[in-house]
Design brief:
By secondary structure, the chain is α+β, with helices and mostly antiparallel strands. It is about 25% helix and about 40% strand.
Length: about 70
Amino acid sequence: QQKKAKEHTKMVDALKSGASVVTRGGVVGTVQSVKDTTVTVRSLESKFEVEKHAIERVINNNSDLKTDNK
């Protein structure tokens, strides 16, 4: 569990504008901006701010949407 937590923290710290992400709530969107503890995500016509720990994973290509990486 500690290894997964460290990997998640590393992934969240590396988030940059333009990255495609999936939130823990299942929302797929694109990172618009990154602040100290929050990330602004755009999904279709909606734009919202979530805490960094709410980002589940980064999507590298469309096949990442179909697999559950838990």
